[in-house]
Every structure is written in structure tokens, then in C-alpha cells.
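ingest -> validate -> predict -> emit
validate: passed (alphabet ok, no gaps, 423 aa)
predict: started
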Amino acid sequence: MIQAPKGTKDVLPQESYLWQHVENTMRKAAAVAGYREVRTPVFEHTELFQRGVGDTTDIVQKEMYTFLDKGERSITLKPEGTAGVVRAVIEHSLYADTLPVKMFYLNAPIFRYEKPQSGRLREHHQFGMECFGAKEPSAEAELITTLLAILTELGLENLRVHINSIGCPVCRPVYHAKLKEYLTQYKEQLCADCKERLDRNPLRVLDCKVEGCKRIAADAPVMLDHLCEECDTHFSGLQALLNGQQVPFRVDSHIVRGLDYYTKTVFEIIMQSGREGLALCGGGRYDGLVEQLGGPALPGVGFGIGTERILMELSNQGIVVEEPSVSDVFVAQITADDKADAFNVMQKLRNEGIKAECDHVGRSLKAQFKYANKINAKFIVMVGGDEGLRGMVRVRNLTTREESEMTSGDAIIYIRNNGEAGK
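emit:
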């Protein structure tokens, strides 16, 4: 039997309403904050991620789905969302428009070849927000508060923001030298990957998940002690803004994020209970990325969060989302000869924005009633029989069990006034 590839998952009709609930909450919050949707291709030229994400990252070295197309061009299924958005900003000269340029992407498929595990699939979907042309820390504060508003609206609790500054090209080289000096003492105790990172990008060692490397990194010098005046002022400004909004946050000097393009601010939102330590999302500032990919010097900041991970946490916290009814009204045909009349009444209801259904499989009248109950219809409209000869229909309210004879036009009014149908 052909099955879905390992690390992928079908979203079936009986659960897609959960995705829609989360996505609608995201879309509404992004719009309130002035962000408009962008949709980029699911694959890009491999060079984009090598230059943008960084060839020292695990994503580029180990996790990308890369292949040659029929024109012998190296193509990669996108492993993260920001690089493609930056490419679009440059290609379409969006930086020439009024700044800042604020965009979000939603239900964007992301592909990473890694061992499938809880909350992490080889194909997953992300929601992200990206802001270009804003250099002030208020841009980060806007993203963090918007994201918290989304998660709170969804019902998630016990969230804490972890923030850090990883400096800029002015102050980071000095820190890199001190970090490399410290790590070199323990080079033989580092994992094979970190031994390579030590020469190419020592900051990446701080992000290693191997226990031995984590113990060594715990006592390493921290970037916060080596910030230049500009980075220090920026980081202090962000903290002041978050305090002003009473956002619960913690300065965490060990957050570096897994991508090379970050500068200054990096942040994560962490679960504080139940699955303590789980990072729901991450983001930060990338002031040099647009220029690095061939555009002008343009500051940027953004985040990405996995939809699957949010859904997993909603389930873990016992948050129930009411499943919408498949149809609010079932139009039953009394006999087979009434099929066309039932179909016409159903279409009238749908034209008025009311969710309506009729029989498509030749059920008996009794079976139609059972089906109406199964799909949780609030009303049954019976078409045909003696009422049909008089140009009337019979409406049964399945909540009150009241039943009345009326015209199809009056049935629409009655249904609107006596239920949630059509809303």
C-alpha cells in the first residue's frame, strides 16, 4: 500500500478546522499590527540558503532537501521562511516603497531532513512575520507582543519570553576571539561537529544539543559582556519596552538561534510548565541579511513558529476548539420524485449563506433523518408529499423539536431567526 512519506502527515477533514482556527487567529492579529501576507515559492535556488542561512548551520550541512532539476540547476525545498521573503524584497524592490515593509506568511510548508519526532516533522508548516526597514527595538517589541497576543488568544498559558543579544559585526569579532580561546581548551571534548564549528563559527557551539558540549558551553564567556554601545543601548531599549507592556521575559545569554544571519536581538517563547523548556517559536534581528543577499543595507527582524507545534500544545493543555457543524440544515426529500425540488431548496439556502445539504446517495426518508442527526444539523426541511403539492415545505427544529409548515422563503427567515445557521 502506498503511504505518506516518513516525516509527513495528512491533515484530514475532521481535524482541519483546528488548523483553520489557529490560522484565522494568526491572520487577524497580523492584520491588526499592519502586516500583509506574502507567499513565496516552496523551492528556491540552493545558493539562497547557502548564502542566507549560512553554510556552517546544521540546516545547510545536514537537513536540506536539495536536488538538480532537469536543467541541472541546484534547487532546494525551503528549510525556513525568511530567506525567501528577503529574496522577494530584493527582486521586487520592495525597499523602495514606504518603510517599514511589514509582511507575514501563513501555512508555509518547510522541509528539513531530520529524524521525525514529537512536534518536529520533515514537512511542517510555519507562520512568520517579517519587518524590513525598522532599526528601532520597537520592531522586536511589536513582534513579540503580537505573537504573545496570538498564543494567549488561542488559550495557551505559562509562556515566557527569553531574549538575548548576540551583538553586531562591530562587537562580535572581539567576543568570537574570546569564545574561541575558551573553547579551544576543551577542543578534544567537543563533538565532531563542534570541532569543525570552532574554526568556522564558534558561536554555533553554544547551540549544540550534545550534553558534553552543553556542559562546556555553560561556563563560556557571554556576548552580553562584550556588546558595543549601540547594541547595548538597543538591547536595553527592548527590555524597557517589554517591561512597559508587562511582558514576562528573561534575559538568556545562551540563546543564539540556529541561523547565521541573526544580529543583535534573538528571542524565543518558552513553555514554563508541563513541557518546560520547549521553545514554541524563535526569531530575532537580521540587519545585514538583505545586503548579504545583494540588496541595499536594510535592517530586518522577524520570527517563525510551527503550526503543528501550536496544535500539539493546545492538545497538551487540554484546550478544546469547538468543531463547526458540517451543515446547519438538511433538506430531506419525501420521495425519489422530490429530488429536484429538494436540490432547489438546498441551493436557495446556500445562496443566503446558510450551510445546507441534501441527499446524494439515494437514502430512504428514515435514513435521511439519521444522516441529518449524524452531521449535527440544526434543522430538517422536508420537501415533497402533501406539503409539496401546496407549494409548502415542513421545517423541523431539531433543538426544540418544533415542526411547522411554511413556504421555502419563510423557512429561510425562520432558520435565520432560530439558530446559528448562516453565521
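Residues 13-32 form the longest helix (20 residues).
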